[in-house]
Each structure stands twice: as C-alpha cells, then as structure tokens.
Amino acid sequence: MNLERVAVIGGGPGGLYAARLLKRSHPHAEVTVYEQSSPDTTFGFGVGLASRTQRNLRDADAASLDAIVAAAHPHEMSMQVGSEVARLAHGDLLAIARTTLLAVLQQHAQDAGVHLRFGERCEAADLDADLVIAADGINSATRTQLADEFEPRIDTGAGLYLWCGTDFALPSAIFVPVTTEHGTFVAHAYPYAADRSTFLIETDEATWRRAGFDASTDRTAPQDSDEVSLQYLQGAFAETLQHHRLIGNRTKWMRFRTVGCRRWHSGNVVLLGDAAHTAHYSIGSGTKLAMEDAIALDHALTSAANLDDALTEYERIRRPAVEHLQQIAHRSELWWESFPQRMDLPVDQLMIAYMTRAGKVGLDRFAESAPTVVSQGLASYASRPADTVSPADITDWILSQPLAHHGADFATRIAPADLRDAPTTAKIDVVSASAWDAGADTVVDNAPQAGTLWLTGPDTRAAVLNRLDLAERLLRATSATVVVEAPTTHRADVAAGLASARAHLAFFTAPASAEPEPVMSGTRAPA
After folding, report:
1. Hey, which residues does 48 pair with through a beta bridge?
2. How many CB atoms lie within 10 A of CB 238?
3. What pLDDT score was predicted for residue 522?
4. What pairs with residue 408 in β-bridges?
5. What's the maximum distance between 2 C-alpha atoms anywhere in the chain?
C-alpha cells in the first residue's frame, strides 16, 4: 500500500512511536507529528516498562528500545503493611522519566525522517493526509468530534487517586498503605531515576471527604496542584518518603476513567492509545498500550492492500488483546478500591492475593519467580510450613489442607458433597458481571443467615473469578463458611483464591462441553 502523507495528532509516546515505525516501513511517505504543547512540556513523572512490553518493543524496533533502556532505572518490587515487608526480585522491571522517554522518542522519530511540529493545535478534518492517527490522549478532541462514528463509552471508577513525585529514589517499587484519622490511603510508588520516584496515592471517597480533600480540590485552579492534599500526604507517608517532600505537577484528585469505543477508525482517521481505550494503572500503563497499538497498526498498514483493509485488520487483531487487558484491569481496579479490608492478612499472603487478584498471573508461575514469598504466604494460609511445595504441586497442596471454621472441621479444602444440600446451607447463584455492583451489594447486605453460603454460577473463567470476589466479600461480612463451586478446569484459579483468603472451601464439577459467555445482568440470592 502506498502512503504519501501521514499525520499524527499528539506527540506523546504512542504518537511518536507510531510515526517512527511508519516512516521506517514507508520511507517515501511524509510523516508529520502535530503536538499542541512545546517539546519539553509534559505532565506526570515516571513510566514503567515490564519485561513483556520490553520484548514487544525490541521485536518492533531494537534501536529505540536500547536508547530507552539506557536511560531507564531498574528496580525490584515490595509490599509493606505496618512493619512487615514482602520483597520480590524482579530485575527486569524498568522505569523512565516521562520527559526522558519523550526526548528519546522525539530524537528517534526525527532520525527516521519524521517532521515534528510543536505548538500547533489541529483537527483531523483540516489535515491533508492519506492517514490521520489520533493519538491525542484520554481527552481526545478527535474522538469527541467524531463521536457518532467512534461511539465512545467512558466509565468512571469509585475511588480517587492523584499522581505526584518525590526528589529521591526509593530502594524499590513499593505498595504501602497508611491509615490516618480519616481513613486509609495506599501508595503505589517506584523509582524512575537516580534522584526521583513516582508516587501514586489512592483512597476511597469517604476517606477523601473526611480529610477535606473535596474542598481543597474545588479550590485548586486548573493549572495548579492541590497543595493541601500534598502536604497532608507528605506527612502521612513521611516514613516511606524518608522525610523527603512530595512534588506536584498539576496534581489533583481524579477518578479513573475507562475509555472504550465501538469503532477505532472512521474513513482515514484511526484512534490510538488512550484516545481509543484505557486500562487501570494497576495493571499496565497507557504508554505500554499506546506503543503496542503502534506496533499493531504498523504491521497492518504494511501487509494490507488498501487503507480500509489495514485499519479493519488493525482493529481486528488489536481489539481482543486490549479488551482482555481492560477486563483484567477492571478486576484489579476493584481489588485496589477494596484493599483496606485485606490489611489484616500477613504481608506474604497479601502479596499472593495481589499477584493473583485479576487472574493474569497464576500462583504456580508466581511461585517460580518468588518462591520465598509464596512459601511464607502458603504457610500463613495453612498455619503450617510450606517450604517443600513445588510450583507444579501448589494447587493440589492448597486443596489438601484441613480447615477448622466456627466449630466445623474439614479434612481438606474441598467441601463434602452432602454439604451442598444440607439444611444449614444457602445456595447463591451468582450471575453478576461484577462482585461490586448494586446487585452484589444487595446480596452482601442481605446475606442469608446460614452456616454455609454456597456460591454457584456459570462455568466461564470470568464468572468463576467473579464468584471468588463475591465470596471474599461474604467471607468478611458474615460468619458463614463460604464455598465456591467451579468446574475442574478452573481448579488453579479457585486454589489461588483459597490461598488469598477469598473463600473457605471449593467444590468442583465436570465442565460443560461448551462455555458460551452468558449475559450477566444481576446477582440472585434465595429469598
């Protein structure tokens, strides 16, 4: 396919990376990036790059990745609750200052022959180009102008968060909660340079209001940071900050917005990155998604016969991966919004819950990379040592452990079949798409007065993970023994849920011959 002129709206990482890739694959095309801000204007602090993202970027363009890695800061990961710390040795985690990342990508785009035009605000309709790539961010003007074509949907989370930074490098990435007189705040923080770290801090709305941050948010001008919140949080996280200051950059409390679009392209205009979709920051950065979008778009434009076929193929190939990540990210978002209720768990067991929270990482895989943390977490789960458990045997080991709960003794964590129909058992058929929606709230608030709550539902993996989330809520809200029923195909997920204190017992059935995704509209409980 012959492209003579390509215009990119937005000079963020996704737009710059797409421009470089397309110029390399279409050397005779004129590729121009239009960015409304100056070259060194950016908001935010560090950008994290996990190992899989690095592999994808290396396969697409090794030279630019080498330059990114050379300017990046490696780190490991830890979680701290009180004085307890769980550490993971992940030497392949990297972070880089957003300003540095932009400078690297700007240079590599120019080296490839891309024209960069800063300080210019433009609209897709005004550009004379064969292809217009709208990489203009979560507040995409292009998406708004062509809303009838793209049919966007934006869902807003319940929790609040803010981005800030500090002027020293943390020894590792860390997840740490702090409880003040107003409630609990959780920091996700990581170093991205020898003298800088990112701090993302989140909380629930009730805590936010009790601390007076609704008022400070209202009083903060758009171009300023919420200094009232920064000073408060600087004191709350003084130990983690080692008494350094928190730095703002138009830092204000926000609610996460999950963007989705029915279509990603219209005519010669295609959306990329946050303009097309977002996924919660606890799973993957918008930068990662945008740069991987650019790779997929370049592949489609290189192989297709015409532009419409290419954009259709780009969306066909890329959309399933993005939507899968969005589903995982939404589950992770809900887990973090409910994080304070789990602070009673020993930190190593909490780390197991964190790593398996969304179904993205299996417990056996986690055990291979962090055997000490997993063995200590399993020891807390079973109240006995778990040093000799191999990753391949973890599921069976978890299910084989005995349980004593409220006067009842179980030889293993697999519920006896006769318990299902016992007079003291109440069955709950869970068909909700979320364990945190209004229907689920009703079930938890009106949980049957029974010795055992037995959760059933569809056989799909998403439905099983959802049952585990609702089981955790019921486990913490009632004194009942909570059982999750699932097909044997999902034994590993259920076992990870047991080890994470999401349920007491499991019960397995033969899987259905086919697993069509159900239409999930509510959560039913017996009257």
Report:
1. 95
2. 12
3. 33
4. 405
5. 77
Local structure of 351: helix, strand or coil: helix
Question: d(Cα 379, Cα 76) in Å, to the nearest integer?
Answer: 24
The alpha carbon of residue 211 and the mean position of all alpha carbons in its chain are separated, in whole angstroms, by 26
The per-residue pLDDT for 89 is 79
Write the DSSP string, 93-152.
Answer: EEEEEHHHHHHHHHHHHHHHT-EEEES----GGG---SEEEE---TT-HHHHHTHHHH-E
359: phi > 0 → left, psi -120 to 50 → alpha, else beta; which? left
| pLDDT of the residue at 433 | 78
The two beta strands, 481-487 and 505-509, are: parallel
For the chain, what is the radius of gyration of the CA atoms? 25
Burial of 348 (0-12, 13-18, 19+ CB in 10 A): buried
**451: how many CB neighbours lie within 10 A of its CB?**
18
For residue 512, give the DSSP letter. Answer: P
Neighbours of 303 (CB within 10 A): 12
Amino acid at 520: M
Please give the pLDDT value at position 197. 97
Which of these, 34, 163, 162, lies nearest to 98 by C-alpha position?
163
Question: Distance of alpha carbon 354 from its chain centroid, rounded?
Answer: 11
pLDDT digits (tens, 9 = 90+) for 272-300: 999 999 999 998 789 999 999 999 999 99
Structure tokens given for 4:
């003579």
Helix (H) or strand (E) segment spanning residue 498: helix 491-499
The distance of Cα 82 from the centroid of its chain, to the nearest Å, equals 24
**C-alpha dist (Å) from residue 311 to 130, 305, 365, 404, 472:** 12, 11, 36, 58, 43
pLDDT tens digits, residue range 304-334? 999 999 999 999 999 999 999 999 999 999 9
Residue 516: its pLDDT value, please?
A: 45
Quickly count: other Cβ atoms within 10 Å of residue 70's Cβ: 9
- Contact between residue 363 and residue 353 where contact means Cβ atoms under 8 Å apart: no
Helix (H) or strand (E) holding 63: helix 62-71
Residue with the two structure tokens 């999950």: 258
Q: Which ranges in 189-338 belong to alpha helices (H)?
A: 205-210, 213-219, 227-236, 286-303, 307-337
| Other Cβ atoms within 10 Å of 375 Cβ, number | 17
pLDDT at 514: 46
Beta strands 246-247; 257-261: pairing state? unpaired
Q: How far is CA 407 from CA 110, 403, 479, in A?
A: 71, 10, 11
Both tokens of residue 64?
């630019």
The two structure tokens encoding residue 438: 């209004």
The list of the chain residues with pLDDT below 70 reads 42, 90-91, 513-527
The C-alpha atoms of residue 424 and residue 476 are separated, in whole angstroms, by: 19
Q: Cβ contacts of residue 366 below 8 Å, gap of 6+?
A: 352, 355, 356, 374
Q: What predicted TM-score, i.e. pTM, was given to this entire model?
A: 0.91
Task: Give the integer Cα–Cα distance in Å for 286 and 291.
Answer: 9
pLDDT of residue 352: 97
Q: Is the distance from CB of 300 to CB of 310 less than 8 angstroms? A: yes
**CA distance linking residue 279 with residue 360, whole number of Å:** 14
